[in-house]
Prior knowledge:
The structure is a single chain. By secondary structure, the chain is of the alpha+beta class. It has seven helices and four strands, in the order αααββααββαα. The protein has helices at 7-17, 20-45, 52-55, 79-84, 87-92, 142-147, 150-169; strands at 58-64, 67-73, 110-113, 130-133. The radius of gyration is 24 Å and the shape is elongated.
Amino acid sequence: MSELLGADRLIAKCRKLYGAKATDITRQAVLHASKTIVQADAKLRAPANEGELRNSIKVRVKMEGDRVVGEVFTNLDHAAYVELGTGPKGQASHAGISPDVNVSYRSSPWYVHEDQIDVGPYHFQKIGEFYKMYGQPAQPYLYPALKENHDRISNNISKYVSRKIREQIR
């Protein structure tokens, strides 16, 4: 029995936090920060015509050994082309993308037949022409959403974990 009033109860509650409960709290903290900060900011930064790219930005949390990892991602085929850009225009606007990503750009323009161009709701008379393409500039939305919010993410996770621990030891 401890000499401090309530210390035994506090120790019992702290033991409850150890193991699965601590991992669960950490997972929830990372999920919360990933959704409220990174995913929200990435959705605001993503260019939107009809909202397909913005709506495809998802969050998942997974365990890698003893680490909890939050991932904000999209599985759209064209998402990487938007983030990183393409061709000479993408190479010229390379600033703002992750320095950890090694991107190889096509350095010369290319030609596309008009039948290969999806014009969406726009209609024009097709006359069998080829169009010279220079690519598209990078429009980073995922990497800046993480990088520019690093401190907010850390603070959010710390506050969430602290709040949950206080709730558990009451």
